Amino acid sequence: MVKVSKLFGVVVLIWISVSLWRSYKNNYISKQQLMEQLKRKTSFISNKDRNKIHLNQQINSNNQDINSTQKQETFQYVCDKTGTFNGYEKTNRVEDLVIYSEMPKCGSGTLVDIFQQTARRATRKHLPTYHTGYTYPVPHEELYQWNKRLNYANGIFEETPPYLFLGHLRFLDFKEVGHKQPVFIDLVRDPINRTISAYHYGRKPQFNERANMTKAETKMSMDECFERLLNETGCVGARDLNKCLHGKKLTACKSSGIVERMTTWFSGYGSEVSVNKAKSNIDKYYLIIGVTEYYTESLVAFGTLIPPVFNMNPTTLVETYKTISNRNVGRNVKQPSAKTKAILRNILSEEYELYQFILQRFLKQMKCMEIPLRSGK
Ligand SMILES: *[C@@H]1O[C@H](CO)[C@@H](O)[C@H](O)[C@H]1NC(C)=O
Ligand SMILES: *[C@@H]1O[C@H](CO)[C@@H](O)[C@H](O)[C@H]1NC(C)=O
Ligand SMILES: *[C@@H]1O[C@H](CO)[C@@H](O)[C@H](O)[C@H]1NC(C)=O
Ligand SMILES: *[C@@H]1O[C@H](CO)[C@@H](O)[C@H](O)[C@H]1NC(C)=O
Protein backbone atom coordinates (compact mmCIF):
# COMPACT_ATOMS: atom_id res chain seq x y z
CA MET A 1 0.00 0.00 0.00
CA VAL A 2 2.79 2.38 0.96
CA LYS A 3 4.62 1.56 -2.25
CA VAL A 4 1.55 2.30 -4.39
CA SER A 5 0.97 5.73 -2.81
CA LYS A 6 4.64 6.59 -3.24
CA LEU A 7 4.48 5.63 -6.90
CA PHE A 8 1.32 7.67 -7.26
CA GLY A 9 3.10 10.66 -5.69
CA VAL A 10 5.98 10.38 -8.14
CA VAL A 11 3.60 10.18 -11.10
CA VAL A 12 1.74 13.27 -9.92
CA LEU A 13 5.01 15.13 -9.45
CA ILE A 14 6.16 14.28 -12.97
CA TRP A 15 2.79 15.32 -14.35
CA ILE A 16 2.97 18.67 -12.54
CA SER A 17 6.52 19.30 -13.75
CA VAL A 18 5.61 18.54 -17.35
CA SER A 19 2.58 20.83 -17.20
CA LEU A 20 4.59 23.63 -15.68
CA TRP A 21 7.30 23.26 -18.31
CA ARG A 22 4.68 23.32 -21.09
CA SER A 23 2.98 26.43 -19.80
CA TYR A 24 6.39 28.06 -19.42
CA LYS A 25 7.28 27.12 -23.00
CA ASN A 26 4.00 28.49 -24.32
CA ASN A 27 4.45 31.78 -22.55
CA TYR A 28 8.00 32.12 -23.67
CA ILE A 29 7.50 34.28 -26.72
CA SER A 30 10.07 33.99 -29.45
CA LYS A 31 11.71 37.08 -30.83
CA GLN A 32 9.99 36.57 -34.17
CA GLN A 33 6.56 36.42 -32.54
CA LEU A 34 7.44 39.51 -30.60
CA MET A 35 8.43 41.43 -33.71
CA GLU A 36 5.10 40.43 -35.26
CA GLN A 37 3.30 41.78 -32.22
CA LEU A 38 5.29 44.97 -32.40
CA LYS A 39 4.40 45.54 -36.02
CA ARG A 40 0.75 45.37 -35.09
CA LYS A 41 1.12 47.77 -32.20
CA THR A 42 0.94 51.44 -33.02
CA SER A 43 3.94 53.51 -32.18
CA PHE A 44 3.64 55.57 -29.04
CA ILE A 45 5.32 58.47 -30.74
CA SER A 46 3.37 60.40 -33.35
CA ASN A 47 4.38 60.38 -36.98
CA LYS A 48 4.99 64.10 -36.82
CA ASP A 49 8.07 63.44 -34.73
CA ARG A 50 9.38 60.88 -37.12
CA ASN A 51 10.78 63.48 -39.44
CA LYS A 52 13.02 64.71 -36.69
CA ILE A 53 15.68 62.17 -37.48
CA HIS A 54 18.54 64.02 -39.03
CA LEU A 55 21.44 61.71 -39.41
CA ASN A 56 23.62 64.50 -40.65
CA GLN A 57 22.93 66.91 -37.86
CA GLN A 58 25.79 67.98 -35.65
CA ILE A 59 24.82 65.79 -32.74
CA ASN A 60 27.68 66.24 -30.46
CA SER A 61 28.43 69.61 -29.01
CA ASN A 62 31.53 68.36 -27.21
CA ASN A 63 32.82 67.11 -30.44
CA GLN A 64 32.78 69.95 -32.88
CA ASP A 65 36.09 69.19 -34.45
CA ILE A 66 34.94 65.86 -35.79
CA ASN A 67 33.90 66.09 -39.41
CA SER A 68 30.56 64.31 -39.23
CA THR A 69 30.08 64.17 -42.99
CA GLN A 70 33.28 62.27 -43.27
CA LYS A 71 32.32 59.95 -40.40
CA GLN A 72 29.02 59.00 -41.99
CA GLU A 73 30.59 58.24 -45.30
CA THR A 74 32.82 55.68 -43.66
CA PHE A 75 29.98 54.08 -41.70
CA GLN A 76 28.88 51.38 -44.06
CA TYR A 77 26.94 48.97 -41.91
CA VAL A 78 23.53 47.88 -43.08
CA CYS A 79 20.66 46.80 -40.84
CA ASP A 80 17.29 45.25 -41.56
CA LYS A 81 13.88 46.20 -40.18
CA THR A 82 14.45 44.22 -37.01
CA GLY A 83 17.45 46.45 -36.32
CA THR A 84 19.97 43.67 -36.88
CA PHE A 85 23.18 44.53 -38.71
CA ASN A 86 24.67 42.48 -41.50
CA GLY A 87 27.85 41.93 -39.49
CA TYR A 88 26.05 40.60 -36.41
CA GLU A 89 26.81 36.90 -35.92
CA LYS A 90 23.52 35.08 -35.51
CA THR A 91 24.82 31.55 -35.52
CA ASN A 92 26.23 29.81 -32.45
CA ARG A 93 24.50 32.08 -29.99
CA VAL A 94 22.34 31.59 -26.95
CA GLU A 95 19.35 33.87 -27.19
CA ASP A 96 18.22 33.42 -23.61
CA LEU A 97 21.40 34.75 -22.03
CA VAL A 98 21.76 38.51 -22.28
CA ILE A 99 24.87 40.23 -20.96
CA TYR A 100 24.62 43.90 -20.13
CA SER A 101 28.36 44.63 -19.94
CA GLU A 102 27.69 47.93 -18.16
CA MET A 103 30.34 50.43 -19.18
CA PRO A 104 30.74 52.61 -16.06
CA LYS A 105 29.53 56.20 -15.68
CA CYS A 106 27.11 56.13 -18.60
CA GLY A 107 23.82 56.07 -16.71
CA SER A 108 24.14 52.37 -15.99
CA GLY A 109 22.91 52.49 -12.38
CA THR A 110 19.55 53.72 -13.55
CA LEU A 111 19.41 51.22 -16.40
CA VAL A 112 20.11 48.36 -13.99
CA ASP A 113 17.21 49.58 -11.82
CA ILE A 114 14.95 49.75 -14.84
CA PHE A 115 15.76 46.19 -15.92
CA GLN A 116 15.36 44.80 -12.42
CA GLN A 117 12.11 46.55 -11.66
CA THR A 118 10.61 45.61 -15.00
CA ALA A 119 11.52 41.99 -14.36
CA ARG A 120 10.09 42.17 -10.82
CA ARG A 121 6.81 43.60 -12.07
CA ALA A 122 6.50 40.89 -14.70
CA THR A 123 7.17 38.23 -12.07
CA ARG A 124 4.45 39.67 -9.84
CA LYS A 125 2.01 39.38 -12.73
CA HIS A 126 3.22 35.82 -13.38
CA LEU A 127 4.50 36.80 -16.80
CA PRO A 128 7.60 35.13 -18.16
CA THR A 129 10.64 37.34 -17.76
CA TYR A 130 14.40 37.34 -17.31
CA HIS A 131 16.05 36.29 -14.14
CA THR A 132 18.27 39.10 -13.08
CA GLY A 133 20.64 39.75 -10.25
CA TYR A 134 23.17 42.47 -9.86
CA THR A 135 26.70 41.13 -9.96
CA TYR A 136 29.08 43.13 -7.82
CA PRO A 137 31.97 43.23 -7.81
CA VAL A 138 32.82 41.67 -11.15
CA PRO A 139 36.36 40.27 -11.20
CA HIS A 140 38.67 42.06 -13.54
CA GLU A 141 42.45 41.53 -13.28
CA GLU A 142 42.08 37.79 -12.76
CA LEU A 143 40.02 37.46 -15.94
CA TYR A 144 43.22 38.02 -17.92
CA GLN A 145 43.85 34.33 -17.17
CA TRP A 146 42.10 31.98 -19.55
CA ASN A 147 41.08 29.41 -16.90
CA LYS A 148 39.57 32.15 -14.73
CA ARG A 149 37.59 33.39 -17.71
CA LEU A 150 36.43 29.85 -18.34
CA ASN A 151 35.26 29.43 -14.72
CA TYR A 152 33.50 32.75 -14.78
CA ALA A 153 31.72 31.98 -18.05
CA ASN A 154 30.70 28.55 -16.71
CA GLY A 155 29.20 30.24 -13.66
CA ILE A 156 27.11 32.55 -15.79
CA PHE A 157 25.91 29.62 -17.88
CA GLU A 158 24.72 27.89 -14.71
CA GLU A 159 22.14 30.60 -14.07
CA THR A 160 18.55 29.69 -14.86
CA PRO A 161 17.63 30.88 -18.34
CA PRO A 162 16.41 33.27 -19.53
CA TYR A 163 19.05 35.23 -17.65
CA LEU A 164 19.94 38.88 -17.88
CA PHE A 165 23.43 39.51 -16.48
CA LEU A 166 23.87 42.95 -14.96
CA GLY A 167 27.33 44.04 -13.92
CA HIS A 168 30.50 45.90 -14.90
CA LEU A 169 31.91 43.09 -17.00
CA ARG A 170 33.95 44.32 -19.90
CA PHE A 171 33.51 42.39 -23.15
CA LEU A 172 34.21 38.72 -22.47
CA ASP A 173 34.46 36.47 -25.50
CA PHE A 174 32.51 33.36 -24.45
CA LYS A 175 33.40 31.60 -27.71
CA GLU A 176 37.05 31.79 -26.79
CA VAL A 177 36.32 29.72 -23.65
CA GLY A 178 34.27 27.14 -25.52
CA HIS A 179 30.75 28.47 -25.03
CA LYS A 180 28.22 29.83 -27.42
CA GLN A 181 28.19 33.61 -27.51
CA PRO A 182 25.44 35.28 -25.45
CA VAL A 183 23.63 38.41 -26.58
CA PHE A 184 25.62 41.50 -25.58
CA ILE A 185 24.15 44.92 -24.93
CA ASP A 186 25.57 48.12 -23.44
CA LEU A 187 25.04 51.84 -23.06
CA VAL A 188 27.69 54.51 -23.69
CA ARG A 189 27.97 58.22 -23.20
CA ASP A 190 29.79 61.16 -24.72
CA PRO A 191 33.41 60.62 -23.56
CA ILE A 192 33.99 64.07 -22.04
CA ASN A 193 30.75 63.90 -20.10
CA ARG A 194 31.52 60.35 -19.04
CA THR A 195 34.91 61.48 -17.78
CA ILE A 196 33.46 64.45 -15.91
CA SER A 197 31.00 62.12 -14.25
CA ALA A 198 33.74 59.61 -13.38
CA TYR A 199 35.96 62.34 -11.97
CA HIS A 200 33.32 63.53 -9.51
CA TYR A 201 32.16 60.03 -8.71
CA GLY A 202 35.71 58.99 -7.86
CA ARG A 203 35.88 61.77 -5.30
CA LYS A 204 32.97 60.54 -3.23
CA PRO A 205 33.88 59.66 0.37
CA GLN A 206 33.53 55.91 -0.15
CA PHE A 207 36.34 55.94 -2.72
CA ASN A 208 38.71 58.48 -1.14
CA GLU A 209 40.50 55.98 0.97
CA ARG A 210 41.01 53.50 -1.82
CA ALA A 211 42.49 56.18 -4.05
CA ASN A 212 44.46 57.54 -1.06
CA MET A 213 43.34 61.08 -1.64
CA THR A 214 43.85 63.92 0.79
CA LYS A 215 40.88 66.06 1.69
CA ALA A 216 42.21 68.83 -0.54
CA GLU A 217 42.50 66.42 -3.43
CA THR A 218 38.90 65.26 -3.11
CA LYS A 219 37.78 68.88 -3.33
CA MET A 220 40.03 69.79 -6.25
CA SER A 221 38.20 71.02 -9.34
CA MET A 222 38.88 69.36 -12.66
CA ASP A 223 40.40 72.57 -13.95
CA GLU A 224 42.94 72.72 -11.16
CA CYS A 225 43.67 69.03 -11.39
CA PHE A 226 44.51 69.21 -15.08
CA GLU A 227 46.54 72.34 -14.71
CA ARG A 228 48.65 70.55 -12.11
CA LEU A 229 48.85 67.41 -14.16
CA LEU A 230 50.22 69.18 -17.21
CA ASN A 231 52.55 71.29 -15.18
CA GLU A 232 54.03 68.44 -13.24
CA THR A 233 54.52 66.26 -16.32
CA GLY A 234 55.86 69.06 -18.48
CA CYS A 235 53.14 68.34 -21.03
CA VAL A 236 51.80 71.89 -21.27
CA GLY A 237 51.06 72.57 -24.92
CA ALA A 238 51.93 69.07 -26.10
CA ARG A 239 50.27 68.26 -29.41
CA ASP A 240 49.58 64.64 -28.50
CA LEU A 241 48.90 64.43 -24.80
CA ASN A 242 48.59 60.66 -24.75
CA LYS A 243 52.08 60.37 -26.14
CA CYS A 244 53.44 62.94 -23.73
CA LEU A 245 51.74 61.48 -20.64
CA HIS A 246 52.59 57.91 -21.57
CA GLY A 247 54.64 56.18 -18.89
CA LYS A 248 54.82 59.28 -16.68
CA LYS A 249 54.02 59.00 -13.01
CA LEU A 250 50.86 60.97 -12.43
CA THR A 251 50.58 62.22 -8.88
CA ALA A 252 48.10 65.01 -9.59
CA CYS A 253 44.51 64.03 -10.45
CA LYS A 254 44.54 60.75 -8.58
CA SER A 255 41.59 59.07 -10.16
CA SER A 256 41.12 56.28 -12.60
CA GLY A 257 38.38 58.50 -14.01
CA ILE A 258 40.57 60.50 -16.34
CA VAL A 259 41.78 57.70 -18.52
CA GLU A 260 40.40 56.45 -21.79
CA ARG A 261 38.23 53.42 -21.05
CA MET A 262 35.84 52.71 -23.88
CA THR A 263 38.41 51.11 -26.16
CA THR A 264 39.65 48.69 -23.51
CA TRP A 265 36.09 48.01 -22.38
CA PHE A 266 34.99 46.70 -25.76
CA SER A 267 38.33 45.16 -26.77
CA GLY A 268 37.93 42.62 -23.97
CA TYR A 269 40.56 40.28 -22.59
CA GLY A 270 42.37 39.29 -25.76
CA SER A 271 45.87 40.45 -26.59
CA GLU A 272 44.70 43.16 -28.95
CA VAL A 273 43.41 46.37 -27.40
CA SER A 274 42.55 48.86 -30.12
CA VAL A 275 39.72 50.88 -31.56
CA ASN A 276 39.51 48.40 -34.43
CA LYS A 277 39.28 45.41 -32.12
CA ALA A 278 36.55 47.16 -30.14
CA LYS A 279 34.65 47.98 -33.33
CA SER A 280 34.93 44.42 -34.52
CA ASN A 281 33.59 42.98 -31.24
CA ILE A 282 30.72 45.45 -31.27
CA ASP A 283 29.92 44.70 -34.87
CA LYS A 284 29.83 40.93 -34.38
CA TYR A 285 28.50 40.46 -30.87
CA TYR A 286 26.59 43.49 -29.63
CA LEU A 287 22.92 43.38 -30.49
CA ILE A 288 22.64 47.01 -29.51
CA ILE A 289 24.63 49.69 -27.71
CA GLY A 290 22.42 52.52 -26.56
CA VAL A 291 23.59 56.09 -26.08
CA THR A 292 22.98 58.09 -22.89
CA GLU A 293 22.37 61.22 -24.98
CA TYR A 294 19.32 59.39 -26.36
CA TYR A 295 18.32 57.66 -23.16
CA THR A 296 14.59 57.20 -23.75
CA GLU A 297 15.13 56.08 -27.33
CA SER A 298 17.76 53.64 -26.14
CA LEU A 299 15.20 52.14 -23.76
CA VAL A 300 12.70 51.75 -26.60
CA ALA A 301 15.41 50.07 -28.67
CA PHE A 302 16.38 47.71 -25.82
CA GLY A 303 12.72 46.86 -25.28
CA THR A 304 12.29 46.13 -28.97
CA LEU A 305 15.44 44.16 -29.58
CA ILE A 306 16.26 42.14 -26.48
CA PRO A 307 14.81 38.66 -26.84
CA PRO A 308 12.22 37.79 -25.49
CA VAL A 309 11.87 41.13 -23.78
CA PHE A 310 10.00 40.93 -20.47
CA ASN A 311 7.00 39.79 -22.53
CA MET A 312 5.76 43.34 -23.08
CA ASN A 313 5.82 46.05 -25.68
CA PRO A 314 8.77 48.35 -26.46
CA THR A 315 7.51 51.10 -24.17
CA THR A 316 7.66 48.97 -21.03
CA LEU A 317 11.17 50.00 -20.05
CA VAL A 318 10.28 53.66 -20.65
CA GLU A 319 7.26 53.27 -18.37
CA THR A 320 9.44 51.80 -15.65
CA TYR A 321 11.97 54.61 -16.17
CA LYS A 322 9.26 57.19 -15.46
CA THR A 323 8.46 55.57 -12.13
CA ILE A 324 11.95 55.28 -10.67
CA SER A 325 14.01 58.07 -9.21
CA ASN A 326 16.36 59.29 -11.87
CA ARG A 327 19.23 59.53 -9.50
CA ASN A 328 22.28 59.28 -11.73
CA VAL A 329 21.42 60.21 -15.28
CA GLY A 330 22.42 63.78 -16.13
CA ARG A 331 23.06 64.64 -12.52
CA ASN A 332 24.20 68.22 -12.30
CA VAL A 333 27.94 68.34 -11.88
CA LYS A 334 30.12 71.35 -12.35
CA GLN A 335 31.29 71.64 -15.93
CA PRO A 336 35.02 72.25 -16.38
CA SER A 337 36.35 75.11 -18.47
CA ALA A 338 36.63 75.00 -22.25
CA LYS A 339 40.38 74.70 -21.84
CA THR A 340 40.04 71.59 -19.68
CA LYS A 341 37.55 70.14 -22.15
CA ALA A 342 40.07 70.68 -24.93
CA ILE A 343 42.67 68.79 -22.88
CA LEU A 344 40.16 66.01 -22.29
CA ARG A 345 39.30 65.78 -25.97
CA ASN A 346 42.98 65.40 -26.73
CA ILE A 347 43.39 62.62 -24.16
CA LEU A 348 40.17 60.93 -25.26
CA SER A 349 40.76 61.07 -29.02
CA GLU A 350 40.54 57.29 -29.46
CA GLU A 351 37.51 57.05 -27.25
CA TYR A 352 35.83 59.69 -29.41
CA GLU A 353 36.52 57.68 -32.53
CA LEU A 354 34.86 54.67 -30.95
CA TYR A 355 32.01 56.71 -29.50
CA GLN A 356 31.30 58.16 -32.94
CA PHE A 357 31.21 54.66 -34.38
CA ILE A 358 28.74 53.52 -31.71
CA LEU A 359 26.63 56.65 -32.08
CA GLN A 360 26.38 56.30 -35.86
CA ARG A 361 25.57 52.61 -35.48
CA PHE A 362 22.86 53.45 -32.96
CA LEU A 363 21.33 56.16 -35.16
CA LYS A 364 21.33 53.84 -38.14
CA GLN A 365 19.69 51.13 -36.07
CA MET A 366 16.97 53.53 -34.91
CA LYS A 367 16.31 54.46 -38.50
CA CYS A 368 16.08 50.79 -39.53
CA MET A 369 13.59 50.06 -36.74
CA GLU A 370 11.75 53.32 -37.45
CA ILE A 371 12.12 54.48 -33.86
CA PRO A 372 11.95 58.28 -33.86
CA LEU A 373 14.43 60.41 -31.95
CA ARG A 374 13.15 62.97 -29.51
CA SER A 375 15.38 63.66 -26.55
CA GLY A 376 18.54 64.09 -28.57
CA LYS A 377 19.94 67.48 -29.36
C1 LIG B 1 27.33 67.02 -21.59
O1 LIG B 1 26.69 67.35 -20.39
C2 LIG B 1 26.20 68.67 -20.34
C3 LIG B 1 25.67 68.93 -18.94
O2 LIG B 1 24.80 67.93 -18.54
C4 LIG B 1 25.15 68.88 -21.41
O3 LIG B 1 24.67 70.19 -21.40
C5 LIG B 1 25.75 68.53 -22.76
O4 LIG B 1 24.76 68.61 -23.75
C6 LIG B 1 26.37 67.16 -22.75
N1 LIG B 1 27.08 66.94 -24.00
C7 LIG B 1 26.73 66.00 -24.86
C8 LIG B 1 27.53 65.89 -26.07
O5 LIG B 1 25.79 65.28 -24.68
C1 LIG C 1 34.43 66.95 -44.21
O1 LIG C 1 34.91 65.88 -44.95
C2 LIG C 1 34.42 65.84 -46.30
C3 LIG C 1 34.90 64.54 -46.95
O2 LIG C 1 36.22 64.25 -46.64
C4 LIG C 1 34.89 67.09 -47.04
O3 LIG C 1 34.40 67.08 -48.37
C5 LIG C 1 34.37 68.32 -46.31
O4 LIG C 1 34.87 69.50 -46.92
C6 LIG C 1 34.79 68.30 -44.83
N1 LIG C 1 34.12 69.39 -44.12
C7 LIG C 1 34.76 70.14 -43.22
C8 LIG C 1 33.93 71.20 -42.56
O5 LIG C 1 35.93 69.99 -42.93
C1 LIG D 1 48.85 56.77 1.00
O1 LIG D 1 49.48 58.00 1.27
C2 LIG D 1 50.36 57.96 2.37
C3 LIG D 1 50.84 59.37 2.66
O2 LIG D 1 50.91 60.15 1.50
C4 LIG D 1 51.49 56.97 2.08
O3 LIG D 1 52.37 56.89 3.16
C5 LIG D 1 50.89 55.61 1.78
O4 LIG D 1 51.90 54.72 1.40
C6 LIG D 1 49.85 55.69 0.67
N1 LIG D 1 49.20 54.42 0.52
C7 LIG D 1 48.93 53.87 -0.66
C8 LIG D 1 48.21 52.58 -0.64
O5 LIG D 1 49.23 54.41 -1.72
C1 LIG E 1 54.29 74.42 -12.05
O1 LIG E 1 55.47 73.75 -11.60
C2 LIG E 1 56.47 74.61 -11.12
C3 LIG E 1 57.69 73.75 -10.81
O2 LIG E 1 57.39 72.48 -10.38
C4 LIG E 1 55.97 75.40 -9.94
O3 LIG E 1 56.96 76.28 -9.47
C5 LIG E 1 54.72 76.15 -10.33
O4 LIG E 1 54.17 76.82 -9.20
C6 LIG E 1 53.69 75.24 -10.91
N1 LIG E 1 52.55 75.99 -11.40
C7 LIG E 1 51.30 75.62 -11.18
C8 LIG E 1 50.24 76.50 -11.75
O5 LIG E 1 50.99 74.62 -10.52
TrEMBL record:
SUPFAM superfamilies in the cross-refs: P-loop containing nucleoside triphosphate hydrolases
Positions of transmembrane segments: 7-24
Membrane topology of the entry: Single-pass type II membrane protein
Principal location class: Golgi
GO molecular function: sulfotransferase activity
Protein's recorded name: Uncharacterized protein
Localization, UniProt: Golgi apparatus membrane
Organism: Owenia fusiformis
Record InterPro entries: Heparan_SO4_2-O-STrfase, P-loop_NTPase
